[in-house]
Each structure stands twice: as structure tokens, then as C-alpha cells.
Design a protein that fits this description.
The protein is an alpha+beta fold and 580 residues long. Helices cover 24% and strands 24% of the residues. Strand 7, helix 6 and strand 8 form a beta-alpha-beta unit.
């Protein structure tokens, strides 16, 4: 078989349309055979060599990978019977190290796609497409229960129809999943959980790309984030950050790489420096090519609806929430060709006024969930449809299998895109008091610290040049001024009827809330809640950051290790005492 499939006579390469194989009487498009260069010669490699290289680098194949290799075996068998078919090699990669091994075994990118695909299965990108449709799924949280999965299988069938996975449009059909694959009770992040999710994604029957979410690296099988991430790459068959060109659109995915090693909340979605440097390089070379970004959590400053009592309180709402989170919104300012940014994480529907927000030329798009782990009763996914002229962003409603257009724009239109949400489908915020998320909802003068809410009821306090504090919905919330975004909480239980917010300087003198007598709040030394009964609560700046928020959730993984160490020490001491 290796000699057969390695023979050059078996490959018939068509530069414009790849090559085709025949299955069950129906033609299907597939990527061209894998090639790599050695000097100036093109070398074709047999699938058997690729399989051996993959197993040596990544371990056992999952069901999807086995299926791809079985197609190669069947194809080779039919060629030995002189049937008019050609066959190639599917790309299957795991970690960055394994990608190098795979490339040397014929699994690397071939010349036709080397410039448009990186980190994904060969053939996800196709710049020659006239039309494409990308189904975008938010958090899955799959549970390996037959009754539970019926809902997901039905949603998968709906998405296949809406992206045109069968028929004339199949060549441009793709799926992107935004992370958090496993259910809360199915050992998320474990090998078993990731394999189950990989099988579900393979069932779409089209090329799929995904990114990691905060729950994808909490596998109890692993002691380190690095080991967990490597397993994710092996099982999903892709690198955790990637790019692919579909028609005129450059798609880019970034992933969190930390769970156990996060400074505070384990659920902070952290993009490391390796990915940021790579992204800068890709964007610098992209020119005017329109870009769509895919991450689990959104950037701070995006203006999307957030869940404050969970994600803001625990400081895991935004990408890199505890370490320079504004870096991503600054990228959209430097590279206005970033036209769309899709994220999930919050389990919120598409029916909020800020489920799509526009900052500059970039539309930030909240993506819901297809299961019952939603927070507001809606089961929804996104759909991107594009061609040479422009794009549409639609909602797929999985309850009634319908779609609606939420945004559409031309690639050559330099003006900001305008969401077109239907007024009769909008729902109120999940927070009765509303929450300020971006400049879409407030004004901050360039020369000062004056925040004037447009929609939300809040009382503002100038407490520094970089942040402001709002009394809002019985909470004290700190906002970053540059990005107009909530970054943390000081207090969750303000008694607004009985407690008053007072600003004091280092000499205990009371200051004006608007910062007029304190250098825009720079002189504020403490924020005090004074109760009508004479009691008070005081909050001071963090001396390291100069900010006011409280760390209300420590790293759970590290806490567990400390508790285990304490318990082990106590058990050892008890055993020693008993032995005496």
C-alpha cells in the first residue's frame, strides 16, 4: 500500500481545483496531495509514512483522523483495481513539534495553500472561493448522554443546512467553534471529553476549526497547562492558533493557554506572548485584506454585553483580563482591516442591543450556545456569509430552525458597519441596573474623567486618571477609562438607601465626586461607604496596580493544591503521632 500510494502515477494535481475522489457514486472535493520541497524538487510522500510520523509524535488517532486515513486506504485499493480515481493525504497535526515531523512526512502544507493556511487541517482555507458560509458555534459543554446529545445533533443538522454542507455550496462550507467543548460534569479538558467533542465536530462533515476556552484546559488528567494543551492539539488535530484565507476573508483564531497557571481566576482567557507576536506579524502582512477574529472571550473595550456578577466580579470577562487587556482593542485601531471579532464565553443570546457592537470599523459579535446552558432561554449560533463584494452576519435560531440577518456590509465600504437588530426581538439586560461596557454607552472627555451614562442609571466617582468607580445596581464597579469597560468590583452589597459613598484624601478630607478638587481623582486615598447608623466600610488602592477592585476569586487550582498539601501534612503528622 505504501508503495502504491507513494507512486507519483497515482496523483493527478489540478492547480485550480485540487483533485477529486469518488465515493458512493458522488464526487467530493478534496485538497491536493501533500507535498514539501527538498532543494528545488517536489517530493510526494505516502500516507503510511504520514501515519507513522503522526503516531510517533501525537499518539493514537481519534475517530475523525482514522476516518480520514481510511478514505486514503479505500482510495488506494480502488486504484489498484484500475478505477478512475486519485487519492491524497489528509493533514493531521497536533503540537507545534509534531507539525514539523508531520511536514517531513508529507502532512505539511502544499505550495497552493502554504500562504493562506497555518495551523489547521490542509484545505480549510481556499482563496479561490466565490462564496463561503461559516457556521460559528459558541460554548458547547457537551455531555456524553444520548438524550442530552439529541439536541446537539439536531442543531448540527440545522447548521449543516444553513452553511450548505451538501450540494453546490459545499465547497465553501466551514464551521468555527469558539471553545469550551465539554460539559461541567463530563470531566472537561480530559482526553475522554476532548475525544468525544472531536467526534461531534467531525460529524459536521465539513472542515472545522476551533479555539480553546477556559474550560478546555482544566483536565484532571494533567498536572500542567502545557500537557493539557498538547493533548488538546493532538486530539483536535490542529494548532491552538491559526489562520486561513476563505475567498477575500482572512480568518484568525487565538486560544487561551492558561488555567492552572493563571494569576487569579482559573477561568481567565489568556492569550500568551507567542500568539500576540505571531498575530502582529500576520496583521502587519495582511494589508487591506479583511480579517475576522475568533476567540473564546471578547476584547476589553468591545462593548459587548457581559455577565457582571460572574465574569467581571471574578475578573475573567475579557481576554487577558488581569494583564494588559487593552492590547486587543488597540490592535483593531492599528489595523482597521479587522472587520469582525467573534466570541462566546457568556452564554448570552443575540437579542441584546449590545450583542453586536461596533468600535471603529470592527463589529464585535457575541455568539450564543446551541444547548440549554444558556442564561436567557435562547439557543442560537452565528452564520457568516461572504462573497467578493461583502458579507452578512446572521443568527441561526435552533428552536425554530430559522435565520435572520443582523449585520451586512461591503468589503470596500470604509464606514463602520451598522447592526440591524429587530426591535421586536430585543430583550432587556439580564442586569436590572444595566451596565456600561463601551464608548457606545458613555462619554469620556479626552482631557478628563467625566463619564456621562447615556442609557444606564449610575452615579460616577472620579478616583484616578486611569479608572472611575460607579455606584450601580447595589455594587461599586471599577471601569477602565481607556476602553470604557468594567474591570472589577469593590463591593457587591451596597445599601443604596442607607449607605453613602464618600471620597477621602490622605488627610481624611472629603473630596468632590467629580474630581474637580482632586486632580481628576488622583488625590483620592480611600473610598468609604458611610452608613446612616454610623458604621463604615473603607476601600483603598492596590499599591501594585494603583487600582481599586478587590480580588474576589483566587486561583481554584492552586487553592486545591494548597489544601491537598495541608491535608497530607496533617495526615503525616497524625501518622507520626500514632506511631509514637
Amino acid at each position: 500500500q505504501a508503495r502504491c500510494c507513494g507512486s507519483t502515477r497515482l496523483y493527478k494535481l489540478h492547480p485550480s481545483r485540487g483533485y477529486s475522489y469518488r465515493k458512493s457514486g458522488r464526487d467530493a472535493t478534496a485538497p491536493p496531495p501533500q507535498m514539501h520541497t527538498s532543494g528545488s524538487a517536489l517530493i510526494r510522500q505516502p500516507p503510511l509514512v504520514a501515519r507513522v510520523a503522526f503516531r510517533q509524535s501525537c499518539g493514537p488517532l481519534n475517530r475523525n483522523q482514522k476516518h480520514q486515513l481510511q478514505l486514503q486506504q479505500k482510495c488506494a485499493h480502488r486504484q489498484r483495481r484500475s478505477e478512475a480515481v486519485t487519492c491524497g493525504v489528509s493533514i493531521i497535526t497536533c503540537s507545534a513539534a509534531a507539525v514539523d515531523v508531520a511536514a517531513s512526512a508529507g502532512m505539511g502544507e502544499h505550495p497552493a495553500s502554504a500562504q493562506v493556511d497555518e495551523g489547521l487541517r490542509n484545505g480549510f482555507g481556499d482563496p479561490s472561493l466565490d462564496n463561503f458560509a461559516i457556521g460559528v458555534m459558541g460554548d458547547l459543554h457537551l455531555e456524553p448522554d444520548a438524550q442530552f446529545m439529541r439536541q446537539f445533533e439536531a442543531a448540527r443538522g440545522q447548521m449543516r443546512r444553513h452553511i450548505g454542507a451538501e450540494g453546490a455550496e459545499a465547497a465553501g462550507a466551514r464551521v468555527v467553534q469558539l471553545g469550551d467543548l465539554g460539559g461541567y460534569t463530563s470531566r472537561p479538558g480530559s482526553r475522554e471529553c476532548l475525544t468525544f467533542a472531536a467526534d461531534f465536530l467531525a460529524g459536521f462533515g465539513v472542515k472545522v476549526a476551533t479555539v480553546t476556552g477556559n474550560h478546555d484546559l482544566e483536565g484532571e488528567d494533567f498536572e500542567t497547562d502545557e500537557a493539557n494543551l498538547q493533548a488538546w492539539q493532538e486530539i483536535l488535530g490542529q494548532r491552538h492558533y491559526w489562520k486561513a484565507q476563505l475567498g477575500p476573508l482572512l480568518c484568525i483564531g487565538l486560544s487561551t493557554v492558561r488555567f492552572r497557571s493563571n494569576k487569579y481566576s482559573v477561568h481567565e482567557v489568556h492569550i500568551d506572548q507567542e500568539q500576540l507576536q505571531w498575530l502582529e506579524g500576520v496583521l502587519a502582512e495582511s494589508g487591506d485584506t479583511p480579517v475576522a477574529m475568533f476567540t473564546h472571550a471578547p476584547p476589553m473595550g468591545s462593548g459587548l454585553q457581559v455577565v457582571q456578577e460572574v465574569h467581571v466580579k471574578n475578573r475573567c470577562a475579557w481576554l487577558n483580563h488581569s494583564s494588559d487587556p487593552a492590547v486587543f482593542i488597540r490592535l483593531t485601531e492599528r489595523y482597521p482591516n479587522i472587520r469582525m471579532w467573534f466570541s462566546g464565553h457568556f452564554h448570552l443570546s443575540h437579542n441584546y442591543p449590545d450583542s453586536i457592537s461596533v468600535v471603529g470599523r470592527c463589529a464585535f459579535v457575541q455568539t450564543g450556545v446551541i444547548g440549554n446552558c444558556n442564561r436567557d432561554g435562547y439557543r442560537q449560533s452565528r452564520l457568516i456569509k461572504g462573497n467578493a463584494e461583502g458579507f452578512q452576519v446572521l443568527t441561526i435560531d435552533h428552536e425554530d430552525d430559522t435565520t435572520r440577518v443582523d449585520l451586512q456590509h461591503r468589503w470596500d465600504d470604509p464606514t463602520p458597519p451598522q447592526p440591524q437588530l429587530q426591535e421586536d426581538e430585543l430583550i432587556c439586560s439580564t442586569e436590572s441596573g444595566g451596565w456600561l461596557c463601551s464608548q457606545l454607552e458613555c462619554d469620556i472627555s479626552s482631557g478628563g474623567n467625566n463619564l456621562t451614562p447615556r442609557r444606564n442609571s449610575a452615579v460616577w466617582f472620579a478616583v484616578g486618571s486611569s479608572s472611575a468607580v460607579a455606584l450601580q445596581a447595589h455594587m461599586l464597579v471599577e471601569y477602565d477609562i481607556e476602553t470604557r469597560s468594567p474591570i472589577g468590583l469593590l463591593c457587591l452589597d451596597v445599601d443604596e438607601g442607607e449607605e453613602e459613598v464618600v471620597l477621602l484624601d490622605a488627610d481624611q478630607r472629603q473630596l468632590a465626586p467629580d474630581g474637580s478638587d482632586s486632580r481628576a481623582g488622583e488625590d483620592v486615598a480611600s473610598i468609604v461607604l458611610q452608613h446612616s447608623n454610623g458604621s463604615s466600610r473603607s476601600f483603598e488602592r492596590n499599591p501594585e496596580t494603583g487600582l481599586w477592585f478587590r480580588v474576589l476569586q483566587q486561583n481554584k487550582w492552586q487553592k486545591k493544591l494548597r489544601e491537598q498539601a495541608t491535608a497530607a501534612a496533617a495526615a503525616s503528622a497524625a501518622a507520626a503521632t500514632a506511631g509514637v
